[in-house]
Amino acid sequence: MKLLVCISKAPDTTSRIAFTDGDKHFDESGVQFIVNPYDEWYALVRAIELVEQNGGSVTTITVGDATCDPIIRKALAIGATDAVRIDAVPTDSSQVARLLANYAKDQGYDIILGGKETIDNNSSAVPAMIAECLDLPYVALVTKLEMSGDEATLTAETTGGTNNLTVKGTFVMSAAKGIAEQRIPNMRGIMSARTKPLQVVEASAVEISTQVDVFKLPPPKGDCVIVDADNPAELVRFLREESKII
Question: Which of 132, 140, 161, 178 has fewest C-beta within 10 Å?
Answer without folding.
Answer: 161
